[in-house]
Design goal:
The chain has 369 residues and is of the alpha/beta class. The protein folds into two domains: 148 residues, translation initiation factor eif-2b, domain 1 (Four Helix Bundle (Hemerythrin (Met), subunit A), Up-down Bundle), CATH 1.20.120.420; 213 residues, Rossmann fold. It is 41% helix and 15% strand. The protein is globular and about 65 Å long. Bound molecules: 5-S-methyl-1-O-phosphono-5-thio-D-ribulose. 5-S-methyl-1-O-phosphono-5-thio-D-ribulose binds next to α3 and β9.
């Protein structure tokens, strides 16, 4: 037998799926994450303490994916609150809000970042009569609950998603809405993992997802590590595999869903959705209710993050692959029109068009439970 590659050896020792995407080390007051920029070659765990370290980790996509960003923000703001040295509530609140606004500025599109931070601030505001020390304890409990909820929510999305496909189906996914983007199961990958446990034998196609290669580096890695039948394709190959009849459904995640069902997700998602419509393949957006923003009316109101030109011109290449000085446009997300979406799979069921009504019904169901 030939010599095993470093990656093979590492996978035998401990699988990527055995690591927590985001964890809290309360004793050492550290946020512990897998550095996703190093995957799949190296599984590196990094520990973050300061506001700047946490902000950078989110901005640089060391921790990424809407739900994982929310969980990291919850633990992050708790750790920063722990560092505030005062017993006076107003001073504590002012300092807390400063740190919260700073973390919130790391990335604009995924609503989970502000959602988690606002949820943490509500804990502070609600318990303003209690000693600061107790409030900090409550913040920890809330951050842990955000993470536990994420696991339950992804599993529920997986169950609803699984009802939309049948054993042996071909599934296409874009970017990484997998375990690495959440605490467990992922959103778009949750039906795939649950199906895997139940012998569905899906054939999954993962778009490589230019320019940051989340599909190649993360989705292909985690699905392969879990024993899922996964085939990596370039972003411009989705029409080809759909034309051949290999794809029965597209499952993608999202960073923000507007009240009318328009959905912001990783750049290229709307191309996949338009192509899928042409070939009659249903597109399902897997969306925890934490990613649905009923205060944003349509996709046109979603702030789309633009990232540095180098991600397109030189990152991942041995040498620069574009002429010096060329103009580059690098939006990190695009908006998929609600008309291209066959269903929005939430933890409270599947919303269908017309989304203005069905998403409201989903939130009513959430309020009742
Ligand atoms: O820029 P990224 O890697 O954070 O973008 C991630 C995505 O677009 C995911 O599809 C989305 O956040 C959903 S993750 C469950």
């Amino acid at each position: 037998m030939g010599k095993k590659s470093d990656t093979e050896v590492k996978m035998q020792e401990k699988n990527i799926m055995d690591y927590d995407t985001v964890a809290l080390d309360d004793e050492r007051s550290e946020l512990v994450i897998i550095d996703q920029t190093k995957l799949p070659g190296n599984i590196e765990i990094i520990r973050l303490k300061s506001a700047e370290e946490i902000w950078n980790a989110i901005y640089l996509l060391q921790v990424r994916g809407a739900p994982a960003i929310g969980v990291a923000a919850g633990f992050g703001i708790y750790l920063l609150a722990k560092q505030i040295k005062t017993e006076d509530f107003d001073t504590f609140l002012a300092e807390f809000q400063k740190k919260k606004d700073y973390l919130n500025s790391a990335r604009p599109t995924a609503v989970n970042l502000s959602w988690a931070l606002n949820r943490m601030e509500q804990v502070v505001q609600k318990h303003r009569e209690r000693p600061v020390k107790e409030i900090v304890g409550l913040l920890k409990a809330e951050a842990v609950e955000i993470q536990n909820e994420d696991i339950r929510v992804c599993k529920a999305i997986g169950e609803y998603g699984l009802s939309l496909v049948k054993p042996g189906d071909g599934i296409l996914t874009h970017c990484n809405a997998g375990q690495l983007a959440t605490s467990k199961y992922g959103t778009a990958t949750a039906p795939i993992y649950l199906g895997q446990e139940r012998g569905y034998h899906f054939r999954v196609f993962a778009d490589e997802t230019r320019p940051l290669l989340q599909g190649a580096r993360l989705t292909a890695f985690e699905l392969q590590s879990s024993g899922v039948d996964v085939t990596l394709i370039c972003d411009n190959m989705s029409a080809s595999v759909m034309q051949k009849g290999w794809i029965n459904a597209v499952f993608v995640g999202c960073d923000r869903v507007a009240a009318n069902g328009d959905t912001a997700n990783k750049i290229g998602t709307s191309v996949v959705a338009a192509v899928a419509k042409h070939y009659g393949v249903p597109v399902y957006v897997c969306a925890p209710t934490s990613t649905i923003d009923m205060d944003t009316q349509t996709g046109a109101d979603i702030h789309i993050e633009e990232r540095p030109a180098e991600e397109v011109t030189e990152m991942w290449y041995k040498e620069r692959m574009a002429p010096q000085g060329v103009k580059v446009y690098n939006p990190a997300f695009d908006v998929t029109d609600h008309e291209l979406i066959a269903g929005i799979v939430t933890e409270y069921g599947i919303a269908r068009a017309p989304y203005k009504e069905s998403l409201k019904t989903i939130f009513e169901k959430k309020r009742r439970q």
